[in-house]
Amino acid sequence: MKTTARLPLDELPTEIVQLTRGPVEFRYEPRGPATIVVFYGGHLRAGLSLGEEVFAGGGCSLLVVSRPGYGRTPVTTGDSVTGFADVTAELCAHLGISVVAAAVGVSAGGPTAVAMTARHPALVERLILQSAVGPLPWPDRRTRIGARLVFAAGAEAVTWAALHTLVRRAPDAGLRLLLRDLTIVPVRDMLAALRPEDRARLAGLFSRMRSGRGFVHDLKALRNPATLTRLAVQVRRPTLVIASRKDAAVPFTHAQALTSAIPGAELVESQADGHLVWFGQDWPSISERIRTFLTPPEAIAEPGRRAR
């Protein structure tokens, strides 16, 4: 049984379906035959969008899921990385999706994308990791302790209510506060490099974020890097790893570790000033690299024709 969410301001429509391991919230936008599955990271859910234009603009269908604890997906639905990867594979079957052109893992959603690709190779054709958590300890001790306080049950709603108010009433001050832990460069320099429209997009995104029980759950689910290492070495699909050396939220060493662990993985270094690679000046060229990565070899060899 599926139900559709009532939409807050600027929220994209989502549905919820009851699967074998529990309910899962998702957004499905059918377009062309190629389907992209997106696992967002901390504080994001299926009703929000970040960097999806590169896929939608290429005519790909999009399946975006809320990971455990985010949106309307409870933490009990496939409560481990591998468990939720299997839930998503079941969701694909439920929706009649027999082939996934790429599993996309963003930040803390990266390990789930790795798990889905490793565990369901007949379903997933490619893997794309963007600023993704790799097989290294994450996050640092200070962030872990702070997150358990400000994003704990009860405190999370108060924390985000205050942040939402700040971003709406004083966008520049709100962005300085929220971006400072995402970059190793002075946050004023990062802000100065952003176009006005990008500042507005970021303010809109931050004003709608929530953590639910998801971020605290991530801290538990991702505490053992060895689990991700075991999954990464099992991946046998083309893999693109995108990351910036200026990322303070997920250090560049995570991208390097993923590239080393996943056979044949390719590392694309973003010149973005931090975690949010979609706002870097080189994102258009990275987008083109993604489109090429998603293009079947025969289409590249003979543009406009199918290989015989």
Structural overview:
- It is a single chain.
- With 308 residues, this protein is α/β, with parallel strands linked by helices.
- The protein has a domain of 214 residues: Alpha/Beta hydrolase fold, catalytic domain (Rossmann fold, 3-Layer(aba) Sandwich).
- The protein contains 13 helices and 9 strands.
- A 9-stranded mixed β-sheet has the order 1-2-3-5-4-6-7-8-9, with helices on both faces.
- Strand 6, helix 3 and strand 7 form a beta-alpha-beta unit.
- The longest helix is centred in the N-terminal third of the chain and has 15 residues.
- The relative contact order is 0.14.
Q: Secondary-structure map with pairings?
A:
Elements: E1 2-4, E2 15-19, E3 22-29, E4 35-39, H1 53-56, E5 61-65, H2 81-95, E6 102-106, H3 110-119, E7 127-130, H4 141-150, H5 155-169, H6 171-179, H7 187-193, H8 196-206, H9 214-221, H10 225-232, E8 239-244, H11 252-261, E9 266-270, H12 283-294, H13 297-301
Parallel strand pairs: 4-5, 4-6, 6-7, 7-8, 8-9
Antiparallel strand pairs: 1-2, 2-3, 3-5
Helix pairs in contact: 2-3, 5-6, 6-7, 6-8
